[in-house]
Design goal:
Blueprint lengths: L4 E3 L5 H12 L5 H10 L6 E5 L2 E15 L2 E13 L8 H16 L3 E5 L12 E2 L2 E2 L2 E4 L16 E5 L5 H11 L11 H7 L4 H4 L6 E7 L2 E11 L10 E10 L2 H12 L4 E6 L8 H4 L7 E2 L2 E2 L1 E5 L2 H7 L6 E8 L9 E7 L2 E6 L6 E4 H7 L6 H6 L4 E2 L4 H9 L12
Family: Belongs to the acetyltransferase Eis family.
Protein name: GNAT family N-acetyltransferase
Organism: Nonomuraea salmonea
Length: 409
């Protein structure tokens, strides 16, 4: 069957929401639904129809995202859902193909998403491009190394998050370009981050904020909730759940973490996810106290190979002919010469013999600087025609700091 696909309008949002609720098996609070509606870009929200019934949906947020060496317009794919009654009928495939075509027409060379199920999106050319590190720390064993940075001019200010929104926004805007995968936030994003109704608290307590500042202004902030608890002997055993911690410099960063870890009546700090190269790990005297687990985070899809590869920076010179396999976006399926050094890059179509043949998802996984091209070669998923070229390509596409997004969309 074929399913007509078109953008929805605002009047169809209730039906669109019902598809999401059925597909994800959730029942969001009405306030959360209204926030989602306010940030929906209806001209970028597609629905597939079975007759008059909305059978599947997907949407896009228009982002400016940090990539190695700069920023790029990126399509933030979200709300990918199909009714349980219409699974395995081609609804999802039709939606994803239409969406990628629309993204290309918009001039966005890259798409990115958070995957509710990691098995799905490789079929459409997405590759795992960043890793998140959720972890917990026993605060009683959280001493820093002796040479941790300090600045006597810094002080901590406790504040109501909503009352310092402007200061939080300004600080984040100053640091967003430092790490690939971060995206600029609009007013709707900040409204969601600072939302603090009962449904947002979910038994974890109100949202709290601390700011690290000096006489010139704010140099960092942390947002968190505290779930109070006592053990059977009435000994405090509270858990601090860290939402965000951002800082403009190492001293402010260290001071914020020290304040979070030294909070009275708290014995454990948990994070929803941090970068795999979070500087906190280096600050801790006993790094074994970071009890972490690995989690895939952002998945990236190269929509237009030439524009995407020429728009980012590279860590080392490389000159390679890449044969791209892409059965979803056929305009990518050809040979490309990538020539790059520390001053810039070009990517042009060629008919030369390839140095390497790879699926487009492999380029997506490496795009933000944290790909596993070498591992994929060893697994037999890439075909290297020129010895050593995958190592050179992987080195050139690597980046420090490692990519991380930090806010699900």
């Amino acid at each position: 069957m074929t399913y007509p696909i078109r953008p929805i309008d605002e009047s169809e949002f209730p039906v669109y929401s019902q598809v999401l609720e059925e597909a994800f098996g959730w029942a969001p609070h009405p306030a959360m639904i209204e926030r989602a509606k306010a940030e929906t870009e209806f001209d970028r929200t597609l629905a597939a129809f079975d007759g008059d019934q909305m059978a599947g949906v997907t949407s896009v947020y228009s982002f400016t995202m940090t990539v190695p060496g700069g920023q790029l317009p990126v399509a933030g794919v979200t709300a990918v859902s199909v009714l349980p009654s219409h699974r395995r009928r081609g609804v999802l495939s039709a939606l994803m193909r239409r969406q990628l075509s629309d993204i290309r027409e918009r001039g966005e060379p890259v798409a990115a998403l958070y995957a509710s199920e990691s098995l799905i999106y490789g079929r459409y050319g997405y590759g795992r491009a960043s890793t998140s590190l959720p972890f917990r720390i026993d605060t009683r064993r959280s001493a820093f190394v002796r040479n941790a940075p300090q600045d006597p001019s810094l002080r901590i200010r406790v504040a109501k998050p909503a009352q310092v929104r402007e200061e939080l926004e300004k600080l984040f805007a100053a640091v967003v370009t430092r790490r690939p995968g971060r995206y600029e936030r609009n007013a709707h994003h900040w409204t969601g981050i600072l939302a603090d109704e009962e449904a947002d608290q979910a038994g974890r307590g109100p949202l709290r904020a601390i700011l690290a500042e000096d006489d010139q202004g704010v140099r960092g902030y942390a947002l968190f909730r505290i779930k109070s608890s006592w053990d059977e002997n009435d000994i405090p055993a509270g858990t601090l759940m860290l939402g965000e911690l951002e800082a403009a410099d190492p001293a402010a960063y260290a001071l914020l973490w020290r304040n979070v870890l030294d909070r009275d009546l708290v014995t454990r700090v948990e994070t929803y996810g941090r970068p795999v190269d979070d500087p906190l790990i280096a600050l801790l005297a006993d790094q074994r106290q970071v009890r972490a687990r690995w989690a895939d985070e952002l998945w990236v899809r190269v929509v237009e190979v030439d524009r995407a590869l020429s728009a980012r920076s590279y860590a080392a010179p490389v000159d390679v002919v890449i044969e791209v396999e892409d059965d979803v976006c056929p305009w990518n399926a050809r040979r490309w010469r990538l020539t790059a050094d520390l001053t810039g890059a070009t990517c042009k179509p060629v008919d030369d013999e390839p140095d390497v043949t790879l699926p487009v998802a492999a380029l997506g996984s490496a795009y933000l600087g944290d790909g596993m091209l070498g591992e994929q070669l060893q697994a037999g998923l890439l075909r290297e025609h020129t010895a050593g070229v995958v190592h050179r390509l992987a080195t050139a596409m690597s980046w420090s700091p490692r990519p991380w997004t930090g806010l699900v969309f």
